[in-house]
Amino acid sequence: MACIEARGLRKAFGPTIALDGVNLRVEEGRILGLIGPNGAGKSTALNSILGLTPFEGELRVLGRNPWTERDQLMRDVCFIADVAVLPRWMRVSQLLDYVAGVHPRFDRAKAEGFLARTEIKRTSKIRQLSKGMVAQLHLAVVMAIDARLLVLDEPTLGLDLLFRKQFYDSLLNDYFDRTRTIVVTTHQVEEIQNVITDLMFINHGRIVLECSMEQFERRYAELMVHPDHLAAAQALKPLHTRQLFGRSILLFENVDRPQLAALGDVRTPGIADLFVAIMGDKASEPPPASSGSSRTTASQEGVSK
Amino acid sequence: MNTELTDSPPTTPALILPTRPFFWSVRRELWENRSLYMGPLIAAGVVLFGFGITAYRLPRLRANALALESVRQQAAIETPYDIAAMMIMFTAFIVGIFYCLDALHGERRDRSILFWKSLPVSDLTSVLAKAIVPLAILPLLTFVIVFATHLIMLLVSTAVLLPSGMAGTTWQLLPWPRLLSILLYGLVTAVLWEAPVYAWLLLVSSWARRATFLWAVLPWLAISAIEKLVFDTTYFIRMVSSRLTGGFEQGFVVVRYPRDAHVPVVDRFTELDPLKFLSSPGLWIGLLIAAAFLAGAVYFRRSRGPL
Question: Are residues A181 and A32 part of one domain?
Fold first, then answer.
């Protein structure tokens, strides 16, 4: 069963269309990175999935309609909206008491175990904790809940490098078990490149790219071209060209690596580079129709895997 | 699809009674809003402080009171106890109003609503847990605090009057159990009568983006002003103010004493009138309106996000 399944998901705020007929399918056991510029529709998509906003079209999360069944759905779904949503007046011990009181799948001992590794005191109020500690606390609570889907919306926003690294390390080592599903949005794309199993770009309320990371590595290649071969490389129609230290770096889609290797140094591009290549030029205009067809093939491959 | 969900082992929910989320949601309200009990407690403290610093006059006052005829005797002894109860009730009323105005607004303002909504607690449960605070928790707290305050006052006055040999007169003349019964009855009738007020405040709190107090008050004043201008009548404002303060008149037979009679307003059980109260259509209409307002609050709790 798909963890999240949407068909023709649409949401408009007055004249602004936040989601424009999104089709998506996220299988269980995947870690999906949902990437998009500000205002692309990421938050609206997540809010729909979490039952925080009504939507048009069809959307099932773990087989339920999130808008009409939010409270039941939340037994199996956790989310961290961003670092600042834990109630600041609450004590850490009260937070644990409360979640243990209302959540049937919360394992308090487990949460205490995670907290024991941090410097968070049970008696502290949340407003007394640093931003990083609040994130640690929220993650400890969420990881102690035996959920099937975890949604992270900019979970590391405003955290320093150490906390950010630690956040994803804990998530992978202590939480992710290949049956759970994680959906994460972030602007810090480089730090999730080795975390996610699937990648999705969203822009103007539409999915403009959808692939697994294996497909990503197969499909995209970045060439630091030897100056002598620049014309030959340009002839292969790169997606995007940028300059670094006086050398041209070209991003290719579906071009044989051996062929490229003859022209310079080839490596797998960073998600950020692909993001800039796909979104950078077109951020201000709707995506062309061709990306729609490549999306379809990508999602079909994703399903067959 | 749903059976499939509950069948797979890691997702079988621990047995959780539907009342548990409600219970914990109410506890959460008391954790967050300490003013709910601190307010009435401070009022009780002020009353006790005032009572304490005038205690030295008590033997003289009591001697004077005992010289009066019996009705006024009792009134003189009872008055401080009535004042204490009134002060605490009034404080609880104010605390309840401000609690309701903030209950559904504060969580949207500080974005913690995103955390509350990440837990398996329905919007109905959340709103009812907030509504039960002014409708049951606060009256109960008020009663307990008044009871404790009266008890302390009784002990102080006994101690002060002991040397002059009048200690027994308080216990003889103060109709304490009756006072407490009347208080309890008064609290229940008042809260049932005022239910639409609290529900309205919760509705505004769930809906308004800012200035909850203004949104709560101004529409009623506007309607009243229009009524006055167009029809030159004041039915609407009288209806509103009767909702705010009229619980007392609804539940009791009000006996108007002359201004200088020094007789407590409610003094005898015969003035309690539960039948009149329960048969008043105003009560039931009010409760229906309260239910409608609360349904609205649930609707907005569900659809409105953080501010």
Answer: yes
Give the number of domains in chain B. Answer: 1
Contact in structure between A115 and A186 (CB atoms under 8 Å): no
Q: Are residues A174 and A150 in the same domain?
A: yes
Number of domains in chain A: 2
Smallest CA–CA distance, residue B128 to chain A, in Å, is: 15
Per-residue pLDDT of chain B (307 residues; tens, 9 = 90+): 343 434 344 444 556 677 899 999 999 999 999 999 999 999 999 999 999 888 888 888 888 888 887 777 877 888 889 889 999 999 999 999 999 999 999 999 999 999 999 999 999 999 999 999 999 999 999 999 999 999 999 999 888 888 888 888 888 888 888 888 888 988 998 899 999 999 999 999 999 998 999 999 999 999 999 999 999 988 888 888 888 877 667 777 655 555 555 554 445 555 778 888 888 888 999 999 999 999 999 999 999 888 8
Q: Which helix (H) or strand (E) holds A175?
A: none
Q: Is the same domain home to A24 and A160?
A: yes
Residue B261: CB atoms within 10 A of its CB come to 11
Chain A residue with the nearest C-alpha to that of B124: A71
Residues in chain A within 8 Å Cβ distance of B119 = 74, 99, 102-103
Count of positions (residues) in chain B:
307
CA–CA separation, A278 and A175 (whole Å): 32
* CB pair distance less than 8 Å for A75 and B303: no
CA atoms of B275 and B280, how far apart (whole Å): 8
Q: Which helix (H) or strand (E) holds A182?
A: strand A181-185
Residue B20 contacts A where some CB pair is shorter than 8 Å: yes
A-B CB pairs within 8 A amount to: 106
Q: Report how far residue A70's alpha carbon sits from residue A47's, in angstroms, rounded to the nearest whole number.
A: 11
Residues of B in contact with A78 (CB under 8 A): 118
Residue B7, in any domain of the structure: no
Question: Is residue A273 assigned to a domain?
Answer: yes
SS3 (DSSP) at A79:
strand
B150-155, Cβ contacts within 8 angstroms, sequence gap of 24 or more:
B150/B81, B150/B84, B150/B85, B150/B176, B150/B179, B150/B180, B152/B48, B153/B48, B153/B51, B153/B80, B153/B81, B153/B84
Candidates A1, A3, A5, A52, partner chain B, best to mutate (most B CBs within 10 A):
A52
- Cβ B110–A103 below 8 Å, yes or no? no
Residue appearing with tokens 């230290």: A245
- A81 near B CB under 8 A: yes
Per-residue pLDDT of chain A (305 residues; tens, 9 = 90+): 789 999 999 999 888 889 999 999 999 999 999 998 888 888 899 999 999 999 999 999 999 999 999 999 999 999 998 767 899 999 999 999 999 999 999 999 999 999 999 999 999 999 999 988 998 899 999 999 999 999 999 888 888 888 888 889 988 988 888 889 999 998 888 888 889 999 999 998 999 999 999 999 999 999 988 888 888 888 888 888 888 888 888 899 888 888 888 888 898 899 988 988 888 765 444 444 444 334 333 333 333 33
Domain that holds residue A292: 215-300
Residue B109: CB atoms within 10 A of its CB come to 14
Residues A155 and A266 in one domain: no
Q: Same domain, yes or no, for A150 and A295?
A: no
Q: For residue B176, give how far its alpha carbon lies from the nearest alpha carbon of chain A (Å).
A: 39
